[in-house]
Amino acid sequence: MNPYRLIDKYYTPGSKLYHILVTHSESVSKKAIALSENHALLKVDHDFIRECALLHDIGIFMTNAPGIECHGEHQYIEHGYLGGQLLRAEGYPLHARICERHTGCGLSKEDIVNGNLPLPHRDMRPQTLVEQLICFSDKFYSKTDLNRELSVEHIQKKLSKFNPEQLERFNAWLDFFK
Ligand SMILES: [Fe+2]
Predict the structure, then answer these.
(1) How far apart, in whole angstroms, are the C-alpha atoms of residue 23 and residue 43?
(2) How far is the CA of 137 from the centre of ligand 1 (A)?
(3) From ligand 1's centre to the CA of 56, what distance in Å?
(4) Spatial distance between the Cα atoms of 119 and 75, rounded to a whole number of angstroms
């Protein structure tokens, strides 16, 4: 599949939002592929990793995040499962799972219920190696400061504000994917 066919269907090439989405997603893709090359367990098809990385944030246009040029109606935290719905409707259920399972270091049903989050009440933590790889790689890039890889310390500090499991999961990945 060609991920740009879908990106170009929902985003206007040349727009600021297109630039933000594609720059961020390409950074995530490069990181994920570099990590997979170093890892014996990750001899996964690079095309699949790249497609997933490029599409993981496809749902952001449906959210309201003016700082990154998103002017939709939904809350930003919904972009994962909205992107998942979109990709499932397009016929890509495996890529859809990546979208739904990359928020923070993944959200458990308890996180969603206890946090009163506007998300379906089900487990949305990454499960497969590729789901974990994309979620982990995504943490190194923001959409407001494009082209800069965030330091491990910066990410850890950010995650420490949430449920301790978020930081624990990130640290476990740091160990696993190095
Ligand atoms: Fe992302």
Answers:
(1) 25
(2) 9
(3) 6
(4) 10
What pTM, to 2 d.p., does this model score? 0.95
In angstroms, what is the span from residue 45 Cα to ligand 1's centroid? 20
Residues 87-141: tens digit of each pLDDT: 999 999 999 999 999 999 999 999 999 999 999 999 999 999 999 999 999 999 9
CA–CA dist 85, 78 (Å, integer): 11
Q: Which domain holds residue 44?
A: 3-177
Q: Ligand 1 center to residue 34 CA distance, Å?
A: 17
We report the CATH number of the domain holding residue 120 as 1.10.3210
Residues 47/4, Cβ–Cβ less than 8 Å: no
Neighbours of 170 (CB within 10 A): 21
Nearest CA-CA partner of 20 in 73, 71, 85, 78:
71
Total tally of structural domains belonging to the chain: 1
110 Cα: distance to centroid of ligand 1 (angstroms)? 23
Question: How many angstroms does the Cα of residue 113 sit away from the middle of ligand 1?
Answer: 23
For residues 24 and 73, the answer to whether their CB atoms sit within 8 Å is no
